[in-house]
Design brief:
The protein is of the alpha/beta class. Among the domains are: 1-38 and 159-178, Orthogonal Bundle (DNA polymerase, domain 1); 45-148, OB fold (Dihydrolipoamide Acetyltransferase, E2P), CATH 2.40.50.140; 263-281 and 297-420, Rossmann fold; 451-608, Rossmann fold (3-Layer(aba) Sandwich), CATH 3.40.50.300. The chain is built from 25 helices and 20 strands. It has a seven-stranded parallel sheet, sandwiched between helices. The longest helix has 32 residues, at 209-240. The chain is globular, with a radius of gyration of 29 Å. It comes from Selenomonas bovis. Belongs to the helicase family. RecG subfamily. GO terms for molecular function: 3'-5' DNA helicase activity; ATP binding; DNA binding; hydrolase activity.
Length: 688
């Protein structure tokens, strides 16, 4: 059986089960092999009921004494409770909305359960399993599965339960699968790593804690090492290319634009500008990431870099993730470059066919010096006469492959400048942007108004909106952000559509209000944002579609409804839409959440506006899986490694990858692996 074979051909699965498994992302044999347990149950030691301790996890076996069923709550939740005994005491075990178990839980039946013990309410000293992790119904003579070892716990569904996954994975591991090594022998030996085949067995069915730790170390190292090899190869390929663009030192045009700026560059901006100039003046292509908080002044550096490439006889391109942001850059650059003789063009998917053709011709003939646009820039029809610099804005919205597609538009490899307003912790930077050199702008330019942030309960909503109305009447504009677009029966939250209707007919009657969300047509969104930009709309009710949006200096207030539904990075991006003008700005986070995690996140938001501090806190609170999804950065999800816990392992994997690039025999070992395993991310480097 091959690793690429469809999962339905594994014994015991078939088409119907395969369809259910596909919903979990399991399509092939290899997908099941790497469907790692989310947790483990150490069932090697049974605890007598009399020895249970409140709040501790334990495994207990006992005999069913009796059962009872009741209905509770507004949702008519059916609760089935069994009382089991083991001769030392009694324990209550409950199941929710599983009435079919009543027939199986007959008195005299043996039950094997793992969970957290708590004192039972009204149970006269009895214990109850408050968090049931797993259970097995046993016959009189039957021994529980995994009693003497550690059982894997998978992310399961009602139709694909733990027993199913344990059975199928065990069957898979018993087969003679073609599991070739993906780490060079020298790397495996140098870092004392368990063999790959052994690691797969131990990660699913570990004999003990030491075997589990060794398996996890091996597979996590493998993930991080391969990604680092790919990223470092991207960097090396660009550096070693003899087709790079070499720029001369700043000339008359650059000096003219810098002199015409209405402000002096901050120390941070000046330092990053020197790094950009140094890179652009080398004969190898620049690959630099500029991280800077919202409003830190990254765009002016992009402008200067584009001017530098133009005065050297080349063209520049800036790609933004939305048409709104691209058009904003186009208008700003056109205004700032007036009188310099530099021609700025605009390209998006919403131009007419005639406008498209005209722009294609102007770019190809070098009539346009700087072209600003959206994903339309990477279309096949776009051909540059002499592309010298590629700038991507809000890089977390683009994948590596998209960036590479634009880079290939030049006859020579152009310099690459990447900008992001999403601060990224150090370990995430190594993982996501390992192929780039990193610059940071830590301080905001002088004159930027600090944004004061407050957390308020829903009972303060009338006072909040009364204050917002007064500010609008004084000439300001405001955002109201909602987590949902429309009403959802499953979630008791106000939607953007509901809030919009409520506010425009209530608190903001007589004030022009607008609604903006992701399901609107592009032209509708453009019209609404343009009206808000031109101050024709005073209050904009929106979803997170405004996270990357137009610059509205007059917008000084933001109310975020049910703020606990957003991550810190997202809240910070949203808050960055205000405070962009000379007015005092306020962000009000509305939430009644009582969970400790939510309260901590919102408290951090109120305490600091430093995006880097918030990014570290967001990674700590939410974990890397939610912090940066694969769709955003174009890299595969990490299935075993955790960049929050595995910092040392990540640094070791990067060191190993750097050593691999120096040894041709190890590199030739790794390249075929990258071509197969990460072909979508690193296809364009495997011809090295």
């Amino acid at each position: 059986m091959e690793l690429t074979d469809p999962i339905q051909y594994l014994k015991g699965i078939g088409p119907k089960k395969a369809e259910q498994m596909a919903r979990l992302g399991i399509y092939r044999i290899y997908d099941l092999l790497t469907y790692y347990p989310r947790a483990y149950e150490d069932q090697s030691r049974l605890t007598p009921i009399s020895d249970l301790q409140a709040g501790e996890k334990a495994t207990v076996t006992g005999t069913v004494m009796s059962t009872r069923e009741r209905v509770a709550g507004k949702r008519r939740l059916r609760i089935l409770t069994a009382l089991i005994g083991d001769g030392t005491g009694f324990l209550q075990v409950s199941w929710f909305n599983q009435p079919f178990l009543k027939k199986q839980l007959q008195p005299g039946r043996r039950l094997f359960v793992t969970g957290k013990a708590e004192y039972a309410y009204g149970g006269q000293g009895q214990f109850a399993m408050s968090q049931l992790i797993s259970y097995q119904l046993l016959s009189e003579q039957e021994e529980p599965e995994g009693k003497l070892g550690i059982l894997p716990v998978y992310a399961a569904t009602e139709k694909l339960n733990q027993a199913f996954f344990r059975r199928e994975v065990a069957l898979l591991l018993s087969l003679d699968l073609p599991l070739r090594e993906v780490l060079p022998p020298a790397v495996e030996k140098a870092y004392d790593l368990m063999p790959r085949r052994e690691a797969f067995s131990a990660i699913h069915f570990p004999k003990d804690a030491a075997a589990l730790a060794a398996a996890r170390k091996r597979l996590a190292f493998e993930e991080l090492y391969l990604i680092q090899c790919g990223l470092l190869l991207l960097k090396r390929k660009a550096r070693e290319s003899k087709r790079g663009v070499r720029h001369l030192a700043a000339g008359r045009l650059s000096q003219q634009v810098i002199a015409g700026l209405p402000f002096a560059l901050t120390d941070d901006q000046a330092a990053v500008w020197r790094e950009i100039c140094r890179d652009m003046e080398l004969p190898v292509p620049m690959r630099r990431l500029v991280q800077g908080d919202v409003g830190s002044g990254k765009t002016v550096l992009a402008l200067l870099a584009l001017v530098k490439t133009v005065e050297n006889g080349f063209q520049g391109a800036l790609m933004a993730p939305t048409e709104i942001l691209a058009r904003q850059h186009y208008e700003s650059f056109t205004r700032q470059l007036a009188g310099t003789g530099i021609c700025v063009g605009f390209l998006s998917g919403h131009l007419t066919p005639k406008q498209h053709e005209e722009m294609y011709e102007r770019i190809a003939s070098h009539e346009v010096d700087i072209v600003i646009g959206t994903h339309a820039l990477i279309e096949d029809k776009v051909q540059f006469a002499a592309l010298g610099l590629v700038v991507t804005d809000e890089q977390h919205r683009f994948g590596i492959a998209q960036r590479a597609a634009l880079e290939k538009k030049g006859a020579s490899l152009p310099d690459v400048l990447v900008m992001t307003a999403t601060p990224i912790p150090r370990t995430m930077t190594l993982t996501v942007y390992g192929d780039l050199d990193v610059s940071q702008i830590r301080h905001l330019p002088p004159g930027r108004q600090p944004i004061r942030t407050f957390v308020r309960g829903t009972d303060r909503r009338p006072l909040i909106y009364e204050y917002v109305r007064k500010q609008i009447e004084a000439g300001r504009q405001a955002y109201v952000v909602c987590p949902l677009i429309e009403m959802n029966e499953d979630v008791d939250l106000p939607s953007a559509e509901e809030v919009y209707e409520e506010l425009r007919h209530g608190f903001f009657r007589g004030i022009s209000c607008g609604l903006l969300h992701g399901r609107m047509k592009a032209a509708e969104k453009e019209a609404v944002m343009q009206a808000f930009y031109e101050n024709r709309i005073k209050l904009l009710v929106a979803t997170t579609v405004i996270e990357v949006g137009v610059n509205v200096p007059n917008a000084a207030l933001m109310v975020i409804e049910h703020a606990e539904r957003f991550g810190l990075a997202q809240l910070h991006q949203l808050r960055g839409r205000i405070g962009r003008g000379p007015y005092r700005s306020y962000c009000i986070l509305v939430s009644d959440s009582k969970t400790e995690n939510a309260k901590e996140r919102l408290a951090i938001m109120a305490e600091t506006t430093d995006g880097f501090e918030l990014a570290e806190a967001d990674l700590r609170l939410r974990g890397p899986g939610q912090f940066f999804g694969a769709q955003q950065h174009g890299l595969p999800d990490l299935k075993v490694a955790d960049v929050l816990r595995d910092t040392d392992l990540l640094l070791a994997a990067r060191q190993a990858a750097q050593e691999t690039l120096k040894r041709s025999e190890d590199l030739s070992f790794v390249l075929p692996v990258l071509a197969v395993q990460y072909k979508e991310q690193f296809l364009h480097i495997t011809d090295t």
